[in-house]
From TrEMBL:
It holds the Pfam family GerE. One of its GO terms (molecular function) is DNA binding. Gene3D superfamilies: 3.40.50.2300. Residues 5-121 form the Response regulatory domain. The keyword Lyase does not apply. Its main location: cytoplasm. Keywords: DNA-binding, Phosphoprotein, Transcription, Transcription regulation. The keyword Metal-binding does not apply. This is Response regulator transcription factor. Transmembrane segments: none annotated.
Amino acid sequence: MEKIKVLLADDQELILESLHIVLSMEEDLEIVGLAKNGEEAIKGCEQFQPDIVLMDINMPVMDGVAATAQIKERIPAIKVIMLTSYREVEYVLAALSHGAEGYLLKAIHPRDLAAGIRVVHAGGTLITQEMASKMIKSMNNTSSTKSNEYGLSTREIEVLHKLALGLRNQDIAEALFLSEGTIKNYISTIYSKLNVSGRREAARKARDSGIMDH
């Protein structure tokens, strides 16, 4: 029987070690690599070609969300499960939007963790009903937590921030792991929502209205 190859990414040595020990006890799992940040996780994926990555969200150098985006772009076949210590909803949603297969809370019982890995390996996803309803809410209410008078979505505010900093479309695209065409679409939507015709005007209006304080 072929084992499921797993890469573990967590900046806390203790968690990394305990995950390693616990999961190694499962006959059908094989830990092929350990990473302490997002960059190491990407390198580990290229080197070991794991089936599954257990990815911590908050890590130095590069966080789990950014690493997930890059892994999914480079090696889409690798499946990513986010590991979260508390309900970091926004981060989990961001990771899922980049193609992560789901998330598990770190406090989970090792048996359930192994079961979760098997579900994802078999082509399933790990999203609780609670998270699914939050996702639907955030999709319906595009201006989610960062509501503002112009009805800009969280993503549009991110683009606007970078626009106001003077970044070129190409730079914004790279920073947000999106295509330049997508950024152009965002910018035209932002302009029409703010009722402005250019960057300077958009930045000024954003600052005047307090959107940029987020």
